[in-house]
Amino acid sequence: MVMVERPLILALVGPTAVGKTDVACELAERFPVSLISLDSTQVYRQMDIGTAKPDLAVRERHPHALIDIRDPAQPYSAADFLRDADAAILAALAADRIPLLVGGTMLYLKAFRDGLAPMPSADVALRARLAEQGRSLGRLAMFERLKAVDPQAAAQIHPNNVTRVQRALEVYELTGKPMTSFWSEGEGVTARLGARLQEFAIEPDSRQALHERIAVRFAAMLEAGFVDEVARLRGRGDLHLDLPSMRAVGYRQIWDYLAGTIDASEMHERALAATRQLAKRQFTWLRSWTGIESLRWGQPAVIAQQIGQRAHLAKP
């Protein structure tokens, strides 16, 4: 029997500020790849500087699917990503190109790799009750409740992410099952798309080196107008800090600064601390990941060459 090799899908992940976009663009220069964003914040329009979104010139040369597809007032979930990513990947494969998922939202990569079983629809009355409990008991109390019923989900959700905490509690109350059980019941990428997934992760030389890079990048974001970007979002009048978009690292802290609850120095320190915490959570995901190939931090061209060799990519 003749074995037919399945089409290849690539994923490039790693902690924030490690240089994933630069490597992805190097790959796009060398090989017939289609870039697909794996970032839960870059889906939002009007959020460019603080999400480290590739600029327009880069995207004109190397288009990225799943960037600027939602308004910041509209939540975007792992299930939304799975649907949109599958469609983008099928389109790339139909064009005889290699899909390359690039970003740092590991929950999205897990959903893509392992699939998601259908979860119950939102229950308006239950959601309102959980929201009221959150207001009266506080965010930490609701997070502790989630830890008791679904510790795996709690390990992957920030305590301040009210929407995701409440959704996980809502699923548990509606079904009596932890939300993470639906992840294990999903249909994996090979079954869904008939393709094989090869995953790579860029790892920095040290945490300290990454923290220094985070600080340099945040300073550059401020210089580029990050505060003005958040001010324009606040000025819309329809956004608030409970929305997933406004909980993105940097945005919440600058929002508080603009509201006058903290000064510029505290905003700066809180934003850096939140970004370092994000990197720590991403490291935690990577440590628990199986089947991912590690790449040492270095020049984007060198890393792209290594990926090309390991994935046996051929130039057009």
Overview of the structural elements:
By secondary structure, this protein is of the alpha/beta class. It has two domains: 234 residues, P-loop containing nucleotide triphosphate hydrolases (Rossmann fold, 3-Layer(aba) Sandwich); 60 residues, Histone, subunit A. Helices cover 54% and strands 10% of the residues. It contains 15 helices and six strands. The protein has a six-stranded parallel beta sheet, with helices on both faces. Strand 2, helix 2 and strand 3 form a beta-alpha-beta unit. The chain is globular.
Q: CATH superfamily name of the largest domain? A: P-loop containing nucleotide triphosphate hydrolases
Topology pattern, helix = H, strand = E: EHEHEHEHHHHHHHEHHHHEH
- Can you tell me the CATH topology of the largest domain? Rossmann fold
The CATH class of the largest domain: Alpha Beta
Q: Mind telling me the C-alpha Rg?
A: 20 Å
Strand content: 5-15%
The end-to-end span amounts to: 30 Å
Looking at the chains present, what oligomeric state does this protein adopt?
A: single chain
Largest sheet: 6 strands, parallel
Strand arrangement across the biggest beta sheet: 3-2-4-1-5-6
Structural class: alpha/beta
Key words describing this protein structure:
6 strands; 10% strand; Histone, subunit A; Rossmann fold; 316 residues; six-stranded parallel β-sheet; 2 domains
